[in-house]
Each structure stands twice: as C-alpha cells, then as structure tokens.
Design goal:
The chain is α/β, with parallel strands linked by helices. The protein has 2 domains: 278 residues, 4-Layer Sandwich (Metallo-beta-lactamase, Chain A), CATH 3.60.15; 51 residues, no CATH class. The protein has 13 helices and 18 strands. The strands form 4 sheets. An 8-stranded mixed sheet has the order 1-2-3-4-5-6-7-8. The protein has a 6-stranded mixed sheet with strand order 9-10-11-16-17-18. The chain has a two-stranded antiparallel ribbon with strand order 12-15. Strand 9 and strand 10 form a beta hairpin. Helix 7 packs across helix 8, helix 11 runs parallel beside helix 12 and helix 11 packs antiparallel against helix 13.
C-alpha cells in the first residue's frame, strides 16, 4: 500500500497559487502557497496549521487575510514558513489590524524564515501584545534533524503529525523563492509468510517492533509468547522498510543550471511534482524575461529529477481560451524526456543557450 495524500490545486491550473494537501492518516492538512483560497471551505482551512509560502508576491500571499479571519474565530497556534523576508511580511500583515478584543493567549503565530545560506530563524508573534513584539531567534537542529545535503542545498523544515516531513530549497526569481518537498514517514510492511514460517502469531508485538525500529532501539527485546527476540534480529526477517518523496512543489523559477541543481536536492525521485509552467514552449523569451518556466522547461526539470508524474499549473492568462493545450504540451514533452535520461543535461544546456 502506498502513502495516501489528498491534493488539490485550489484555483486549478491558472490564477493564484495554493496547493491544499490533506494527510488522511493524521487528519492534518497543509498549504503550499496561500494565494486566493476562498474556494476552500472553513472546515478545510481550519485543518491547516502550517503554511509553506514560496514568496510573497500578491498572487501567492493574498489569501493570508482570509486564512487569518477564519482562524481568529477559534484561536490556537499557526506556523508559516518561507524565504527571506517572510517574518517581516507576516508581522506587517498582523500589525495592520486592531487586536484589543481577544482573550489572553488566544492566538500565537510562529514564522520560520529560510535565509540565503539555508539557516533558519524563528519569530513568535502573540495576540496578547497585538503581535507587536517580534523576537527573532536562530533555530538550531541536531545533525539528524537538520538533514541538510553535503552541499547544503536543502533544509529540513518541519515534521508533520504522521511523521512525514517537509524539506525546502531556494531558487532564483529575481528574488529568493522557496520550493518544497514532502517525504513520507518510514513505512513498515509485514511479510505474513515470514511471520508464519517462524512459527509466530501476529499480535501487538508487531506494533512494538515497528516502534523500536523507528526509534533506533534495535537492542530492545520483544517478548513473543515465551521467547525473547532482539528487535534488530527479528525485524530484517519479517519487515521491509520504505520511505519516499511523495510530493514536490515549485513555482516562479528561472530556468537555470543553478536552480535545477537546487531543486534536485529536494526532488530526486519524487512521485508527484507540481511545477509552475506559466508559458508555452514557443514563448520562452517571455518566460525568461519574467523569470518563469515554460511547459518544455518544466518537463526537463521533472525528467532531470526523475519525477514519476508531472502536474503543471500557474498558466498565464494569455492562454485562457485553452489551458488544456498547455497541459497537453507539458505532458508530451515529459513523456519524451522520460526516455532520454542520458541526454537530459545536454537538452537543458541547449535550452539555456537560447537566452
């Protein structure tokens, strides 16, 4: 069984960007970008406690006020993640309102900012002082939690309720833009035949074994009937372990070797790659001027990171008479490039040389 996700582009393939991702195992939802979100129900919005912002151009951030309006009614804790400047942007939004009627401790908003060197800073803003006090502290992680690539092209941002986690990198769009990926939690698969061949009866011990392996407690004993097993001895005989990148999100990105290398650090092998594609291939000069991608360029990136599926979106309104043609073109390119992995780097360089 794969790792389940319910994903929808809130505004379809054009318009403001907002990707709503629901995790059925935990009931949690997150947003990647927060453009116009009025198509989401209040119930859907209230499931979201974490928002991952690419950048704060208006079509990626205008939904902040509606999101805030829904959550103010219930209070709680929210967290925003984003590129350089996100702390100032969120604080500015909050400080534009009068907050004198909220009960003490009603709403806390944390903001995690990704610096150019991929270090992280965090600010915590509280309704108690009208979100005025904005103390910024650098976040320190253990090497295991930080999980940065050797070249430090990506950073692990957040662990979700079911154990999945979100990583990020920065790309160039005449400003720094955050791209994101979701890595599934460690999934354990039990080989029923192997269990039976060892003369064991399935029971609560299987869950305990999974927990021990997940927590690196391989030397912890497991009692099954009257026999004690070391977790690290039993697990290889009956369990297989898997974890994979299940989703990638990239928007507003110049087509360049530097950006592609950064994207590889979070996207290699991703199952479902959501990638902006503002322009069709014939309009690549316009895409270059606007620092956006074409259908062909999105397909080249998807093939270079060995994505299983490509979903293109954020199409320019100049194509509003036929958005399906943009999708069809991207899929044709992607199908072609999937079978030419050894030639991808040459195709990318040829595309870049045209600018």
């Amino acid at each position: 069984m794969g790792y389940p996700l319910d994903v929808k582009l809130v505004n379809g393939v054009s318009g403001d960007t907002a990707l709503y991702v629901f995790f059925p195992r935990s009931g949690e939802a997150v947003l990647f970008d927060i453009g116009e979100i009025r198509k989401l129900s209040n119930r859907e919005i209230l499931r979201v406690k974490k928002v991952f912002v690419s950048h704060t151009h208006i079509d990626h951030f205008i939904g902040f006020d509606h999101f805030l309006r829904i959550h103010v009614a219930v209070g709680g804790e929210l967290t925003f993640y984003g590129p350089p400047g996100i702390i100032k942007n969120v604080a500015g939004k909050l400080q534009g309102y009068l907050w004198n009627l909220l009960q003490p401790g009603h709403l806390t908003i944390s903001v995690v900012e990704i610096a150019e060197d991929l270090s992280l800073s965090k600010a915590v803003l509280r309704s108690d002082d009208s979100f005025e006090e904005c103390k910024i502290a650098e976040i320190s992680f253990s090497p295991e939690d930080q999980r940065q690539s050797p070249a430090k092209k990506c950073v692990r941002l957040s662990t979700l309720d079911d154990g999945a986690y979100v990583e990020a990198t920065l790309v160039d769009h005449r400003c720094s833009v955050a791209s994101y990926s979701v890595q599934s939690p460690t999934l354990f698969h039990v080989d029923a035949e192997a269990v039976a061949s060892l003369g064991l009866t399935p029971g609560a011990w299987i869950g305990k074994l999974k927990d021990n392996i997940a927590q690196n407690l391989g030397k912890e004993p497991i009692m099954i009937g009257e026999k004690s097993w070391l977790s690290q001895d039993l697990a290889p005989q009956i369990l297989s372990v898997s974890s994979s990148r299940v989703l990638g999100f990239t928007t507003d990105c110049l087509f360049s070797l530097e950006n592609i290398e950064s994207l590889k650090s979070i996207l290699m092998g991703v199952a479902n790659f959501y990638c902006e594609s503002c322009f069709r291939a014939e309009d690549k000069q316009r895409a270059f001027q606007k620092k956006h991608l074409t259908t062909k360029q999105a397909a080249l990136i998807a093939a270079s990171v060995k994505a299983k599926n490509l979903v293109t979106f954020h199409y320019s309104d100049i194509y509003n008479s036929d958005f399906s043609a943009c999708t069809d073109e991207a899929q044709r390119y992607f199908s072609h490039y999937q079978g030419a992995e050894n030639e991808i780097i040459h195709m990318i360089k040829d595309e870049i040389s045209c600018f």
